[in-house]
Amino acid sequence: MSAVTLAHAQTADPNIVHVAPLPLGPPGPQPGLPPAYQSPRGTVEQVRPVKPLRVPRHGASEPPPPIINPQTGVALPNMRTISPSGPGGRETYQDRAARCAHQAGAYGANAGDRNTYINNCINQ
Questions:
Q1: CB within 8 A of 75, min separation 6: which ones?
Q2: What is the per-residue pLDDT for 10?
Q3: What is the mean pLDDT of residues 40-67?
Q4: What is the pTM of this model?
């Protein structure tokens, strides 16, 4: 008899949440929205991915004119960018900064003051 009383007390507990099952079948029409597309019977809706645009690859870009060292008067040629990473194969600011720092190290004492050379090369 006490077991029946306990079972009855548990169903009256306000902390127990009873979840109703979800309705089966397609959802009904949503107010304010057009009806969803449904494929004709017997066919499967096919999704075709969009092909990406082909970007033409260019060779190495033309380097800027040589830099003339004002201390020595020596014209130091610019090296080509190995792999330009900008859109359309153009040299980006980072590409230019890396190229100028490499040139300053490669030319050594002929470049004069390293920081001045890199600044003139980048801002050319």
A1: 66, 67, 68, 69
A2: 53
A3: 72
A4: 0.48
- Domain assignments of the chain as residue spans, ordered by start: 71-122
pLDDT tens digits, one per residue of 60-117: 556 778 888 877 788 888 888 777 778 777 888 898 899 999 999 998 888 888 888 8
Cβ neighbourhood burial of 62 (10 Å; 0-12, 13-18, 19+): exposed
Under a CB-based contact definition with an 8 Å cutoff, are residues 57 and 89 in contact?
yes
User: Mind giving me the DSSP string for the chain?
Assistant: -HHHHHHHHHHT-TT--PPPPPPPSS--PPTTSPPPP-PPTT------PPPPPPPPP--PPPPPPPEEPTTT--EEPPPPPSS--SGGGPPPHHHHHHHHHHHHHHHGGGG-SHHHHHHHHHT-
Distances (CA, A) of 36 to 22, 39, 122: 20, 10, 57
Distances from the Cα of 8 to the Cα of 11, 13, 112, angstroms: 5, 9, 95
Distance CA 82, CA 60 (A): 7
